[in-house]
Amino acid sequence: MITPIELWNAAEQLAEGSLDGDSEFARRLVISRLYYAVFHSLQAAPATRSLPRATIDGGMHKAFIAAIKQSTDKHLRRAGQRLADLHQRRVDADYNLARPISRMDVAEARHAANAVRSLVAESETPA
User: Fold this and answer.
1) Cβ atoms within 10 Å, residue 91
2) 88-116 pLDDT, tens per residue?
3) How many domains does the chain have?
4) Alpha-carbon distance 11 to 19, whole Å?
5) CA within 20 to 30 Å of 51's CA: 78, 93, 98, 124, which one?
6) pTM (predicted TM-score)
7) 2: which DSSP letter?
8) Which domain holds residue 80?
């Protein structure tokens, strides 16, 4: 079984160029893997386990993001906004093949993914 941290590590390896991270193919993989690493980490996080799962059109990812964005915890709400941004980047990387994916896109995706991880950690830190 693969873990979210293994997905994260693989994406970081790609991003650092150790697996041909300079090709557009690799850049698309980085963004996709970062999104899934963060998504699965959030699903497993104690801070999100009690959130109601929204039911909306658009699938389980949009429903989960909507639930996070409706949290009473300000850190989780901000994490939900960043995850929504990262989700759109993942959709572009996986499905919008006519749109070029640049190094800047990868840098912005990495920044968003790190922000989500930090915000979730803050939400789980006792006040």
Assistant:
1) 14
2) 999 999 999 999 999 899 999 999 999 99
3) 1
4) 10
5) 93
6) 0.86
7) -
8) 4-123
